[in-house]
Each structure stands twice: as C-alpha cells, then as structure tokens.
Amino acid sequence: MKNYSADHPGSYSCQAWSSVWAPNLVHVLACSALALVVIMAAMTSTMVQAVDPDQLQDFCVADLSPTNPVIVNGFPCKPSANVTSKDFLFTGLSTRATVPTTGIKATATFATVFEYPALNTLGISHARLDFGPGGVIPPHTHPLASETLYVLEGTIYTGFVSYEGVLYAETLKVGDLYVFPKGTIHFQINVGTTHAASLNALTSQDPGLLFVANQLLASNIPDAVLETSLGINATALKYLQASVPPLEGF
C-alpha cells in the first residue's frame, strides 16, 4: 500500500506517529480520542435534525392573530406580559370530536399548535382517536413527525409500512403502545365490537397530515399519469376517484 506520509513529509498519520514514537501511550490515546470525536460529531450532526428545532426560550405561546404581520417558520410569540397559566392548559381532548374526520366511523380530536398555542416551538402535539366498531383511520403520513399511539379503550389493529415496503402491524389492547416512524404510511382500525380510543403523541407542533388515497386520487394529478402508474384504464380510475370517502373536517 502506498505510504502517503512518505510522499508528503509535511503530513503525519496516527500510524506514522506510532512508528516514530512507539510505544508512546500518549500518542496512541490521542489518536483514539481524535477518532472518537469525529464519530460523535457525525452522530450529532444527524441527530439534531430529528425533530422540530430546539426553542431559544422556555416558552413562546403562539400569537395566532390573523392581523400579525410577522412571517416566521412557526408563529410569533404572544407578549409574555399577556401570558397566563390558562395558556398552558388544554381541555380539548377530554371529549371526542363530533365530526367524523375520515367519514369512516372514526374521529380525530387534535391538540396541535393551532388548537393549543402553548405548543409553539416545543416540538410536540397530541391527538385523540375515537372509533366505532369497524371504524378506520385510513392510510396516511405525518411528513414532519414520528408518532406513538396509546390504547385507552377497545382493540385496535394498527401498523406502518417501512421505506423498504414491509408492513409492521399488531393488534393492540388497552395499555399497549405502538410507534410510527417519521413519514411512514400508517393506519388504524377498530377490530373489536365496542367503542375504541387512543391517545397519540407526535414529535412536531404541526406534524402535517396526508391521506394517501385522497392525495393520490382526489388531487389534480393528470389521469394519464395515474392510469399508467396504477396499471388501470380510464374507467377503473374514474371508479376509484368516485369511491374515495370525503374527509370531513379537513
């Protein structure tokens, strides 16, 4: 193997140092420490992008006023002099939503920054899911967040599809917890005979919500693209487009 240090006298490697100074333990430890620092720096540069950016202060209750002229990634802060303990209290998850947010015997009650302004900059939100027997939350993604689901009541079959196209799914009972990695397609269905409910936590104040069927079939993607991509003719595509349930409440 070609020796870079031999051709470049001004450069030194750990191997070169150890050959000159061996068996100098100080240099061996220095080389090991340098390698460790490089590895940790690489890991840190990856991990810091995992969730919403860290806040620069203890709280920043969102100012959702439509007249606020400031445009930022998130929301400007409500003046701290106007903040009270009530801003940090949210009671909206105590009861289920009254509007079927999927049209398939299921509702989602949200606690994102839009409903709960105190979450602004904190990188977290919640949702309560309620299902009648056979109720479904259709396949969807949260492009900005990972999610956990904790079963409060009933029996829920849920899962996600990995980036490799593998389905990971389980039937959950009361007290069970399941996690959906960021951006993966996932779903829920009540497989019991009674009401089911869950409490979900997400790693973003505004995780985003994209329903697969609606994004694909109820958008303005040209029919020719969909027909070719799905391997179907125009008649079948029209049938599928007409069959997608409406998402009331969105």
TrEMBL record:
**Pfam families, per database record:** Cupin_1
Q: Which residues cross the membrane?
A: 20-42
Quote the subcellular location field of this record.
Secreted, Extracellular space, Apoplast
| UniProt keyword terms in alphabetical order | Apoplast, Manganese, Membrane, Metal-binding, Secreted, Transmembrane, Transmembrane helix
Q: Which residues form the Cupin type-1 domain?
A: 91-238
Question: Is the Transmembrane helix keyword given for this protein?
Answer: yes
| The keyword Zinc-finger appears for this protein | no
Q: Provide the primary localization.
A: secreted
Record-linked InterPro entries: Cupin_1, Germin, RmlC-like_jellyroll, RmlC_Cupin_sf
Family to which the UniProt record says this protein belongs: Belongs to the germin family.
Protein name according to UniProt: Germin-like protein
